[in-house]
Amino acid sequence: MNKAHEESIELLHIIHEICKNKDLKYTISADTLIAYERGMEFELCIPIIYIATMYHNFKALRAELYNFCSRHNGYSVHDYTNTEQFDTFDLWFVKESKIKFHEDRKKESFYYGTRLIVTPLFYVGDEEADWEKAYGQFRDTTCTLNVRSVLKGKPLRSFIRLSHKRKISNYYIKQRGKFSVENMLARYGSHERSRYVVYPYVTGRDGRNPNSLPWIVNHASKHITEDVWNTVEEKEFCDTVCYVAVHPEPIIKCFPNYIVRTVLKSNKSQLALNGNTYLWRVQQIQVELLEEFDRICRKYGLRYNISFGTLLGAARHKGFIPWDDDIDVTIPWEDYDQLDEIMKLELDHEKYYFRCPANEENNHLTFKHLERKGTIYTKPGRDKLDHQIGVFIDIFPMYPSSSFAVLDWVHAKVCRYWRTALWATVGADAEPNQKKRRYYQKIARPGNKKCYEKFVRAATFFKSRKYLKFWIAMDRNPYKVPLVRMSNYTDTIDMDFNGKKFMAPRDYEAVLDYCFGHDWKKYPTTGGRKPSHKAIMEIGDLYKKESEGQL
């Protein structure tokens, strides 16, 4: 069991001792209960423990936790009352990391600690109609808190596909202020004990529609009545004792099957399994890589932008988004094409590796990496590469664009074909559909290098100096939008990122508005604040001492 798992157990032990002394009932819940009842070892789970308790117990526990934190350094409590952009009914009890943070980032330091999540349960009445009414209000509140504006400027097919979500999103955006955590607590926080209970944690999406809004998932939670939540017993959980519902199955059944499957998967992200201090160490390596890339670009007059989540982090957090796990830069093709020879001259090849698809068999990428040697950061199936992938930053080329929309449409078809063919040289055998697999195997016959040459030849066909093309995303190959203006590279500013200065477009707000929608300043839901990449990872002893770097 790693440090993050041990800290999770410690937090549970503290909670249990408080609740037992104060006669407060709770039960482990959500992912923790699912894994426990299905016999999954905790060290194979994400090191976050979930518990649930009735709201009157929740308030008493919150007060006790605040009191505990006032007497013990290194712990903190976070909810909607004291934490920025924390619109959730839940409370986080956090054992904080020992990382040293710059003053303007201390408010986000708790994201790098280990957390235990406490969810309040609400009495709503003794009649089924009472539950239905309350459920609808909690659902609308959850949707309103979670809604974000839908991206604009996408290709027509995506615009049509997202039209239903856009309609729903616009409705809930208008409800901001009407539905809130405060309003729901005022309405249901003082309800007396009753048969029916609302469990607001059970959120997810329509399994048939990945673009649906997160909301309270289904009506199965109606059957988790008051007696299910309050009938608990002490059981051993790893090396401590905690309360567990005597009848846990009704609670588990209210979670959709895809959530249960996700909890029980054995191949989880090592970043998530190793905890947030480990994530911080990976981020430190990536900043080191970005500094080296920036040094070389400035020395040789190469233009670049920090982009996508990295640009968002710089604008919104003055550094890494606390739960982000990669760095992205974009660079115009004419500068990108010079990188190979420059890196040969400038890189410390004992320390860094520059990965280029043109120089490596079985490389199916259309972009380049700057990687830290002595580390591993890769996904299953990439064992065919000549060199194991290390912790890296993505270097994305921005290709010349056509000046005419019709030609751009044809151009996109050609480039997508060769990009798919390049991917198929490695990925064809993994395709489960037999017809598609045969097709991919056929178009992959020229091999990696030939497919990459064909892709580059097609992608660089035009010579536009005003607008560029981003050919990496499968769905979004934007045409004449803020993201792809050449002025992003000719008119740059230096933006703060983790205490350093890196190149960014002067009109970065327009770029972020295009990439992330008008709500880019809003954080994702609290449930979404975690690393997204599922990778095999080893970083040795790099930045093992938390005092070696700052955020």
Quick summary of this structure?
The protein has 551 residues and is α+β, with helices and mostly antiparallel strands. The chain has 20 helices and 20 strands.
Helicity level: 25-40%
> End-to-end distance, in Å?
27 Å
Percentage of β-strand residues: 15-25%
Helix count, DSSP H or I runs of 4 or more residues? 20
Which helices and strands, and how do they pair?
Layout: H1 3-22, E1 27-28, H2 30-37, E2 49-54, H3 55-71, E3 75-78, E4 91-95, E5 114-125, H4 128-146, H5 156-161, H6 163-174, H7 181-188, E6 196-198, E7 203-204, E8 215-216, H8 226-230, E9 232-237, E10 240-245, H9 249-253, H10 257-264, H11 270-274, H12 276-300, E11 305-306, H13 308-317, E12 328-332, H14 333-336, H15 339-346, E13 352-355, E14 368-372, E15 376-378, E16 392-400, H16 405-427, H17 434-443, H18 448-459, E17 468-469, H19 487-490, E18 492-497, E19 500-505, H20 508-516, E20 536-538
Parallel strand pairs: 2-5, 12-16
Antiparallel strand pairs: 1-2, 3-4, 4-5, 5-6, 7-8, 9-10, 11-12, 13-14, 14-16, 15-20, 16-17, 18-19
Helix pairs in contact: 13-20, 16-18
